[in-house]
Amino acid sequence: MPTALIAWCLGTAGCSHAVVVRPAPSYDAFTFETPLPASAAVFVDADQLLREVHVVPHPSGDGEHCIGSRYPVDAREALEVSVLSTLERLVRRVEPVSAPPDGETMQARGLDSVIVVRVDTFHAGLASGALQTFQAGVELTLSVSAFTRDGLKLREVVLGNGTRHRSGDLCDTGAEVLGHTVEAAIEDAMTELGEVVANSHELRGSLAAREFR
């Protein structure tokens, strides 16, 4: 793309601005006990975190900055890394997998549990208003399931929310604020995820019972 066209896209509407989303694990999960005595396979289904967000006017009706610009978001890898990094300090051993293993595979790999995290909903919005201000909001819901060789021991839904705003002359500012907002929502969800998994009495009890068999 010619340099002049790149500069035009950075400062005007109608262009595409890639959103960078970095991993956002949580280290704030409150747990009542020591890490889970588990060797856990972890499967993350984050396909819904791939989409394109279009900037809209702020509900106040002030400003038309960058209206029509597009912001492609791909937070799949960021979520997967966030889940693994969050669980690593709460579970004795975690192993990422590309598909949930069956009982035979679990036994062959020395695994005694499977944790499945799936994105249920992902809502992301970006508005521009007066004084060239961008405001982003993100809502995220994840379904969390955990199995041991005794069957399903945990099924919960966790939520993550984020809001951010920032002013800037360039439309790329919208990509920056949206990326930080997605990260905030992921980190929020990771705190709840860690607490749900680490404090599950059924899951902990099943794993502890297997250690004495």
Structure report:
The chain has 213 residues and is an alpha/beta fold. It contains five helices and eight strands, in the order H-E-E-E-E-H-E-H-E-E-E-H-H. The strands form two sheets. Strands 1, 3, 5, 6, 7 and 8 form a six-stranded mixed beta sheet that branches. A two-stranded antiparallel ribbon has the order 2-4. The longest helix has 27 residues, at 172-198.
- The average pLDDT is 89
- CATH class descriptor name: Alpha Beta
For the CA atoms, what is the radius of gyration?
21 Å
Largest sheet: 6 strands, mixed
Unreliable spans are 1-8
**Distance N to C terminus:** 65 Å
Count all strands and give the number.
8
Q: What do we call the CATH topology?
A: Double Stranded RNA Binding Domain
Portion of residues in beta strands equals 35-45%
Total count of helical runs of at least 4 residues: 5
CATH second-level architecture: 2-Layer Sandwich
Return the domain count. Answer: 1
CATH superfamily: Lipoprotein like domain
Shape: elongated
List the helices and strands and how they pair.
Layout: H1 3-11, E1 36-45, E2 50-54, E3 56-57, E4 70-74, H2 76-88, E5 91-96, H3 103-109, E6 113-129, E7 133-148, E8 151-167, H4 172-198, H5 201-211
Parallel strand pairs: 1-5, 1-6, 3-6
Antiparallel strand pairs: 2-4, 6-7, 7-8
Helix pairs in contact: 2-4
